[in-house]
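Hello support,

Our group uses your service weekly, and this is the first time we've seen a run hang past the timeout. The protein is F-box domain-containing protein. I'm not sure whether the cause is the sequence or the server load. Input pasted verbatim:
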Amino acid sequence: MEALTVFQVGVSKEMVGKMSDAIENYRKAEKLDKDVEKLYRAKIYAESQSVPENSKDGEIIIEKPIVLNEKEVAKIDAKKLLSTFKNSQILIKNQELPPTISILPDDVILLIMEYLAEIDTPSWIQFSLCCKKLSHLGFCTSDVWRKLCFLTFPYQNYEPEVAALNGITKNQDKIVGIYDNSWYNMYRQRPFIKFNGIYISIVNYYREGGKSEGSSAWTNPIRMITYYRYLRFYKDGSVLKLLTSDEPTSIVPKINKNWKEQTNLKVYKGTWYITPEGNISIKSEGSVKNYLFIENLSIKNSSKLRKHNKLSWINYEFMDNETTELYEFDIKKEKPYIFSRVKSYKDDI
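Update from on-call engineer: The timeout came from a worker crash unrelated to the input. Re-ran successfully.
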């Protein structure tokens, strides 16, 4: 395991900005074992699984995403598999225990699932994965998907003209026909912004530093620069945005409507609109007075399993409020925003 140890030394060097030393260790580790990076990632994943579940009152409240082998999962025909569970029953492993949910009629179980979907969507998913019968009820019947659509789409902020032109109303029963009258298709295919968490963009780039006085080094040191962009959307059409070098663990709890009372960070408030195609326009104040800053983003899927959880850049503009002239920022270094669910946000959306 010498290669892994050397690689970890490189990681620690990189974290403190000593890129030249880090690269040297990475090269040495790869000479010892060409698959050392895979070993390191496997080690980090194993360690992450041993971390206790975060609580609402804990310092770190961002949920860890479930890590799956998505290539293998993508090979499964989920609809076909779930259809085979139609006649399954809930079996009690320990027959000595009194029957509980197994004696409930399907309609009651579906009401429980709708309630879970409303208060904590991942709980509905976990409940549905308990056995074959619950999987069929949870994922193949339209009740829960309809509930999710009514909990989600009426709060998407469309410009009035766009909504009128495209027939978008608060009543989702009038829109589901576009999706073959399938609530499942509607929820999976129609882009939407999520409110129970935060979108984070992590940008890393390297910059050549200067030599210290009296240094005899042949090359200049390489430093890694890291900064974060945060976006938190609200159902009332407002959005909070922040650009900082501070990591999520210290920032995420402070991004709320009372941010002025909790932090001195330069959080900017703006407004957001979505289009039927899933394009997002964010207009806000910024660090320069008399200018309007406009981020244009597009909702994307991170993968087949992770729907609508990525915001990719279209462009980033700023407008002189006096002349109304538009200018454009260079976004070559910018990275997409990725959504992270935050448990403590559910009461402030």
